Predict the 3D structure of the following.
Amino acid sequence: MKDHTGTGKVRKSILLIVASALLLMLVVSFLVCGYTLMKETHVCYMGIMNMSSQKISKTIGGMEMNARNVFDEVGKHLDSPESVIEALKSKTSLNMDVKGYFAAFVPNYFPQKGQWFEPYVHQADSSGRFTVRDVGSASHDYTKSDWYVRALDAKDCFWSDPYFYYDGTGISGRYCTFVKPVFDASGRLACVCGADMTFEWLTNELRRMDDATRRSDMLTQFRMFAGLDFYTVLLDKDGNCIAYPEGRSVPLKDEAVLRNLAEKKSGSVDVTVNGVSSKAYYAPMEHIGWSVAVIVPDHVVWKPMLIVGTILLTVAVFGFLVVWLVLRRGVNQRKEE
């Protein structure tokens, strides 16, 4: 009878060497791939964030351009209240993303209209039909509104801070207004014109853009990036969340983040949303004073690494089993001899 003790020790040594080599290869491969994938993931989400920022800026830029046309038209027709209203009505179809256009006149500019005169041409329903009415009154003294007070010292257009308007009608809601002071031929301030954008529309626009991005080639060409759960939010200059999916407000109050945004720098920061650890990729938007952030849960950020780690581990286990089976077969053959 042959002594197979030495053979068994050799087999165990070979298995140990192979297992150690495979483990080392697994660790090194995972670290290298992990580092590369984390960089790729960061680039991917920064790209999504930049794309969202560009889309929003483009949409808002179009609104601004059309609003300026409306404001210029009002400035050419300051001879009577009726001509102002007709000027507003003639341009309302330029941009359906705007809730409405208004001209808030300085008190008693038209004596026949009294102290308050603010014709407002706005969308009456979802069909896009516009209607007009005078919303200026003692209960709505627009001369005390922040956007009006700020316009008294302004020379050109600006975006107002977000605010809530309520008058019991269908135009009540959260707004941000593109504002411009309009002067008459003598250089005297005649009115403050504005184009209203609702945050309901803006939130829907963010959701539409996110859905389009999820279907884009940038994500779907690689399965590990397909079906990712992320969403976009808008922040004001103080880091407050002003447009976001319901229940997912993500204010960024970290001093380093606020400093980066003030200096027009982009970056990422760890946040917690409804108890879920997430990553926020943020960047300032051009000229409007807002910032955009893409929020991604940590388990989604780590998804590509988990996929690659699973693949590497499977390959390592398979390789170990192959070596073990080959050695086992060799030992069995020797026993039969």
Summary: The chain is about 45% helix and 20% strand. The radius of gyration is 32 Å. The first strand starts at residue 100 and ends at 105.
